[in-house]
Amino acid sequence: MQDLVAIATEIAAKLVERKQTIAVAESSTGGLISAALLAVPGASRLFPRRRGGLYARRAAYSDGYP
Q: Which domain holds residue 24?
């Protein structure tokens, strides 16, 4: 996780420099990308507010997975 946080720190710095935010859609990573980004102090401001969230498992069921 420390390696991921180091990379996330660099990404966060670039986003702040460019005045950009980030949105993340994860499945098999289980939230690891978001967790690494949010481990950076102040990084919660990089995630847009009032955008809501979505959790869906429907596709997994349609592919025959439990």
A: 2-62
